[in-house]
Amino acid sequence: MPRDVSESPSRRRRGSPLLFGHVLREFMVPLVCCLLGFTALFLFNSVFDDIPDFLRRPATAAGGPSWEVPLYFVLTQPANLLNVLPMSVLLAGSFLISLMGKHHELVAVRAAGISLTRMALPIWLVAAALCGVSFVIGEWVVPECTARAQDIRERWTSSRTRLRRQARLVYHSRETRRDWFFETFDAEAVHAGVFVKQFTLDDSIDWELRAARARYADGIWVFEDCEVVPFDPTTQLPLEDQAQRQAAWPRPDLTETPDRIVHQVRPVEGLSVRQIRATLRANPDLPPQVRASLRSTIGFRLSFSLACLVGALYGVGLSVTRERGSAMRGFAYAVGLMVAYTMVAQLGLVLARKGLGPPWLGSVVPTLAFLAAGVVIMHRRR
Fold first, then answer.
1. pTM, full prediction
2. Which residues pair with 227 in a beta bridge?
3. Which domains does the chain have, with CATH numbers?
4. What is the DSSP annotation of 163-190?
């Protein structure tokens, strides 16, 4: 049977690498410019807001090398990048479509039988890749950078006395019915002034461990210069005459780890999804509001990584116009919807963290709803 060649030109046009390369090149230029511009604006804003605190630091502040100050401002930028990426994708996509419409390239592409969705394939691929980049940044980069930036800020702007107060840490384990108190907590070194109080099922004190120092090595707590004091079950008074004292006392029965302790007391914004899930698994008896806050944060982190696709759909779909002078109106609609999406997503996260409704309703549904709306807009404009 002879080959039907009537469809081959159309197929070659639909898969044309020249069109793919042209759209990709024209999209990447404004995208990079938007990323650099927004990053510079956020950086300047951070400098103007925070540099007075560094200049007015107390005389008793610990301080550090001078290069730590610019490093602090660099470390604050990954968190801003999570909001910069979606808006940059939207602006770059809108600029590309508006430019192609002005030069009548969209008319030529459609006359060749190529749909707008197919033509914008490079934009979808770049947006999808940036979704992955956004998730990686939020999961691995932002928590570490935020912790390091906070450490630099505290050493430069807080007195030594205040830093010593901040080093104190209190942790309560509902699962093991134990309270921990650290006069100085250091997740990577030796802890000083450690108290552990064990409670019974009726919430009475069973015993109290007091140690001058403690370290966690090879999965075991080792307490130095310590004593364990039992409590009278009736009077709840310490039985000091029955205290057991040792210079070094390994306690493999204490299953709490430094990572588990610091993850629960650290603000949820500074935790990665992996750390939040580990905290939920290790603490099954968390209060309902705390559990709702952690679960909603996981849903928001996973869903908000799709924001770049939302920006691409609105930027491309709303910038396609058939009327002269309506391109700016479509661009304004796209920016307005993107701002509305960000506000609704943040508001939903706040409500979900407070336990007002299921965690997924406030943390996941806004992103999925705006994403579905973008798909509908794109389908109508194709």
1. 0.77
2. 210, 245
3. 8-158+302-381 (no CATH), 177-254 (2.60.450.10)
4. HHHHT-EEEEETTTTEEEEEEE--TTS-
